[in-house]
Structure formats: structure tokens, C-alpha cells
Amino acid sequence: MESSRPKLLFLCFIFLASAASTTAHIAEYDEYWEKKAALARAASQAAYNPNPESVANTFNADVHREMDKAEVEHAIMNSTRRGLRGRKKKGGPCVATNPIDRCWRCRGDWNKNRKRLAKCARGFGRHTTGGLAGRFYVVTDPRDDDMVNPRKGTLRWGVIQNRPLWIIFAKDMIIRLSEELIVNSNKTIDGRGVNVRIANGAGITIQYVHNVILHSLHIQDITQGNGGLIRDSETHYGLRTRSDGDGISIFGSTNIWVDHVSMSNCGDGLIDAIMGSTAITISNSHFTQHNDVMLFGASDAYSPDALMQITVAFNHFGRGLVQRMPRYVTKREYSPDNVWKDWSWRSEGDLMRNGAFFVPSGRDPDKSTFDQKDLIKAKPGTFVARLTRYSGSLDCVRGQPC
Ligand SMILES: *[C@@H]1O[C@H](CO)[C@@H](O)[C@H](O)[C@H]1NC(C)=O
Ligand SMILES: *[C@@H]1O[C@H](CO)[C@@H](O)[C@H](O)[C@H]1NC(C)=O
User: Fold this and answer.
1) For the chain, what is the radius of gyration of the CA atoms?
2) Domain CATH code at residue 296
3) Which of 83, 177, 199, 383 is deepest in the core (most CB within 10 A)?
């Protein structure tokens, strides 16, 4: 989180020097990928915010403001005896407590105005608009049987298009990906209103691209792909090695927003964000039954990861999870102090349970750009149940608040 200028310049330099070694799963690192990687590096540097505290501060302020409004609404609803207990029942009042959800969920017209979602990201991924500039594309066919020339109507056909697209689904479906689904830039995959499961096959790869929204999906039981020839855009396909079995793999990519996604039991990580990926928000999602949940940055030696800025908010880390919730590069239990003691780690208002503890390190984040009175504290951990109550993929009904 350090942001002093000389250091940043130094890191950019190292970034360029190590660029050639980043070839994961690309069997033929051809001119096409070289160019794509170079553009992605430039995008990542441009997206990096040298003043991360201001982003966190704005985010905290939003949370306070929207929660206060929600409390007032709840009180009004209470007084009109409409009842608010438990999860929203069909036809019951819609309750949204966090600023992302309050941006769209309780509007009865969400399905007529799906692109409103593009205004709703908060935190480091807040500029993510996905397929906002594009047309709608409706997935009608759950099959995934041609990796090089996917047929129109499939999810794979939609994600490889070069132009922006807002991808929705005609009906409930289970999609078993034969190989990793390589998503191109400027896409939204919007599963609201239907039940879409990406399951029992390969996972989603977001590699050297920008501006992708994944919304209201179930991603589960993901396994390694075999690799082979796979198309990644209208204009290119190439040979890939075996994929890792990550649910969502974010690799050298920028402006990515994952919201209301339910994930469990993948072969590798549920979500990994590595190789200089930045400007990411992972929100309102629900994670269960998994060992290595989230990895941000695979190696301390890879310095472009210093540009990595990720907001993880309003997620529910549920049953059966083992570790990495998330892991940020260094595994502190195993590493000597000197590996991490200069990193700025802070915990604010957290609620520690079952013997959990937190060891702060490094210097206080640079708050000099704020008057102390303008500094907004995070909502304390006691609010977590209220803020994460509707996490995971939603059962939205068209024409009703969700
Ligand atoms: C609404 O009513 C419930 C049950 O009577 C109470 O626990 C809750 O605090 C009330 N909420 C508000 C915001 O007044
Ligand atoms: C994505 O959209 C932006 C804004 O319209 C555009 O500048 C950019 O070139 C697009 N990216 C790709 C890879 O087409």
C-alpha cells in the first residue's frame, strides 16, 4: 500500500524488465500475446491509484451513508409492520444494506435497466463498466463443444467477441466448460433472473484484458482443463497448456468486478488475481467448501504485484473453507518477520472469534492527504452479518425488487 513516488518509478522499471517471463498457460507466446501483455501492463500502471487511502476513505464513507439510510428505511418499514425478519421472502420488502446493493437491487425495474449495474461498483474496481457500451447478447445454448469456432448462442461465443457485450441468459442452465473460458475485454456476464451454474468443467480465465463484470453466477466443482487450441478473441486462437482448475483466474488484468457470485470446490483457487492485476473489487460473494480460497499475487519476487489494488467487501466466507481468505502474496505463518514486517497491515474494528488474532505491521498508511476529521473509519465487525446477509448468487425475479 505504500505509494511514495520514487518507489513507484523503481517498481515500474522492474516491471518492464521481468515482462518476458510471464507466459502462464500460453503454449505459444506469439506476437499476439506479446502485444496483449504489453497493453495490459500499460493498463495496469494507468489504473493504479497512488493514493489508495482516498479510495478506502470514499468507500467507508459510502458504507456509513448507505447503512444509515437503510436503518431509517427499516425503522419506517417496522413501524408499518411489514416485518423484516430473515431473508427476503417473495413479495416481501427488499432490504439492501451496503452501497453496492443499494445502487440497484431494490429497484423493481432492474431487469429493464440491467446496465445500471455498471454504475454500482465501489472500491478499487469502481471504474469497471463491463459491457456497458455494447449490445445485449443472450446465451441460449449451454453447450461448450468447439473451442476454436464456438457456435453462436453459447457463452464462449459471447466472451471472445472483440466488441463490448452485455451477456445475459435465456433460461436456467448448467454450463460445463470443456476448457478454460477465456474472456475478452469489455464484457459483463450477468446471470441475474436465472440460475446459471458453471460446473464440473474448467473455469473462467481473465488474462491480459480489462473491464469485466461477473455477476450472479454459481461457479463450482471446477477441474483442470487439458489445454489445446482455444480461441481467446475473434481474431486469435492458440495453443494452451493445462489450466489450473481455478474458479476465476485473473491474470495481468485490470478493472475487474466480481459481485454476488457463489463459489465452491475448485481444483485450485476459487479466485486468484496475479501478475500485476489491479483495480479489482470482489463483493457480495459467497464461498464454501474449499481449501485455497483467494490468492492475490503468487510470488514476492514478482514486483509488478506492488501495483495490485483489490477491494474485498461484503463477502461471506462460509462453511468448509480452509485457508487463504485471502492470502496476499506472503504466507505469514511460514515466512520470517523480515519478509513482511515492512508491509503496512492494519485491522480496524474487527471482531476476532475462535482464537483468531491479527498482527499489525509496517508503518501507518499515509493519511497525510486527509484532515484527521475527514478520515472515515470502517464500520466495525459487529455489522458484518447485516452487511453480508444477501451474499452469493441472488434469486432475482424479473419485474420485482431483487
Ligand atoms: C425492527 O423491529 C425489530 C423487532 O421488533 C427490532 O429488533 C429492530 O431493531 C427494529 N429495527 C429498527 C431499525 O428499528
Ligand atoms: C474497451 O472499451 C474501451 C472504452 O470504450 C476502449 O477504449 C477499449 O479499446 C476497449 N478494449 C478493447 C480491447 O477493445
Assistant:
1) 21
2) 2.160.20.10
3) 177
Q: Which helix (H) or strand (E) holds 45?
A: helix 31-47
Q: Note down the domain range covering 324.
A: 5-58+98-329
Question: Ligand 2 within 6 A of 132 CB?
Answer: no
Which residue minimizes the CA distance to atom 11 of ligand 1? Answer: 75
pLDDT in tens, 41-62: 999 999 999 998 899 999 999 9
pLDDT at 117 over 70: yes
pLDDT digits (tens, 9 = 90+) for 151-186: 999 999 999 999 999 999 999 999 999 999 999 999
Task: Report if residue 245 sits inside a domain.
Answer: yes
- Sorted by sequence, the CB contacts under 8 Å of residue 59 that are 6+ apart come out as 99, 122, 123, 311, 313
Q: Which atom of ligand 2 is nearest to the CA of 184?
A: 13
* Among protein residues, the one whose CA lies closest to atom 3 of ligand 1: 78
Distance 211 CA to ligand 2 centre (A): 8
Looking at the chain, how many residues does it have?
A: 402
Mean pLDDT lowest for which of 95-99, 100-104, 323-327, 340-344?
323-327
Q: Does residue 368 lie in a domain region?
A: no
Does residue 85 have a pLDDT over 50?
no
Cα of 158 to ligand 2 centre, how many Å? 16
Q: Measure Cα distances from 270 to 52, 240, 243, 265 in Å.
A: 25, 21, 13, 8
Count other C-beta atoms under 10 Å from residue 29's C-beta.
Answer: 14
Cα of 139 vs centre of ligand 2, distance in Å, is 22
Question: In which band, very low, low, confident or very high, does the pLDDT at 366 lie, cut at 50, 70 and 90?
Answer: low
Is position 381 within any domain? no
Q: Do the domain assignments include residue 344?
A: no
| Unique residue bearing C-alpha cell 490468492 | 295
pTM, two decimals, is: 0.87
Query: Is the beta carbon of 185 within 6 A of some atom in ligand 2?
Result: yes
Higher pLDDT, 327 or 156: 156
Q: Which amino acid is at 98?
A: N
Q: How far is CA 18 from the centre of its chain?
A: 26
Residues contacting 206, CB < 8 A, separation 6+: 183, 212, 248, 249, 250, 251, 253, 256
Which residues are identified as catalytic? 324
Can you give the pLDDT at residue 269?
A: 81
Closest CA to ligand 2's atom 12: 185
